[in-house]
Predict the structure of Glucose / Sorbosone dehydrogenase.
Amino acid sequence: MNILKLILLILFISLVIFTLMYEKISSQSQKKKTKILDNFDKPWSFSFIDDDNIILSERTGKIIYCNLEEKTKNSIKHNLKYFVNKQGGLLDILFYNDFVYISYAEDRGNNLSNTSVAKAKFNTEKLEFTNIFEAKDQYDTEFHYGSRIIIVDNYLYLTVGDRHNPDKAIDEEHHIGKIIKINLKDDTYSIFVKGVRNPQGLTYDSQTNNIFISNHGAKGGDFITKIEEGHNYGWNEVAWGGKNYVNTSIGPTWKKGFTKPSKYWVPSIATSSIVYYDSDKYPNYKNKIILGTLKEQDIRVIDISEDDTEIITVKVNNNNKYFFENLDKEIGFKIGKKYIFDIFDDSNKGRPLEIYFNGKKLDLEQEKGDNHSHFIFNPTTKGTINFKCEYHQGMGDNYIDIPVQGKFNNEEIIIKVNERVRDIKINSEGDIYFITDAGNLYKLK
């Protein structure tokens, strides 16, 4: 009998372990990758010419024309003067209106380089490129070229990394650490966004006319976000939660005066390419960002939709100076759990008297012996909300409105691919293709 009980116990434990394993796996996508082509040498980017053919850039210098049905590869000659180092070489490539656009680490002589963009009429034999943009200055560092390009309404947008010169990322005298907007009619350009470290993803949502980037942080602080002209993300005065690789502090996650990213990761997942998915082929992915990672070696499907703005009204007493001197706070919450949020820090003696969430009054708790005020609520939505406190003149001195800037779903569909994902593209049928640092081109099924 004891032996029988032991056997039953072992079977029960095995069943529990299997169930837990199954539940963990089922929380991820069950999609499989199918290898289409391989043996590329440090591939960086590819672009669909049509659903059967792509053009691909190898960082080490080749541009390759590939037929996906016949699984053939043919090198295309070109005239680019490129510089290959740890992260430099031929970078992002884009086929658009019978032209090929490419970003690359241009050899500026004397072991110096920087990011440039060139354009050539499409030809499968040879591409005669002409530069349309050259980032200011040149550097002897081998990192952070950025490089991603998209075209929207006859403007080309280019990401340029900080080239290991972070102090110049918010300085408009320099192009590094910026998103550049180039007019394809006359090649004039302007700085669109500044204060980024190494933005390795760039995509466009044609339905909402929004542009999104992914930014590779330091040791933590990767983020994705919608960008608008004039945004300043603050690198390296802020580090979005990250640290230096020697584990020293860089700066706060965020501070007043800089734009707060929509979603960021600490520790780092090493964000790379992103693409906006607007096809009906995979309904669970529609209107979401598909993100590749280097460190985690996976593909993530992320909901970046924003809910309508909601108002929390805070009634405060006359002693409260917090909101007038510190106008920004972040509130996070999780589904099914009560979340306590500190309105004030230790140095503030004011307290809120009433708080409403979607018109419903929230319970307040005041801890004895300190100056904290908390509100407790049990939301039905999972995610993180960022609030920007704004003084509302019409309601009198004792009221402040806090509009929600954006609500983003924290749930991610994770597709483990076990290779460093470098670039992701979608064809006209909604099929998802990606290349990896291992030199492989895959299709998700």
User: Anything to note?
Assistant: The CA atoms of residues 271 and 293 lie 5 Å apart. The domain at 33-305+411-444 is CATH 2.120.10.30 (Neuraminidase). The chain has a mean pLDDT of 80.
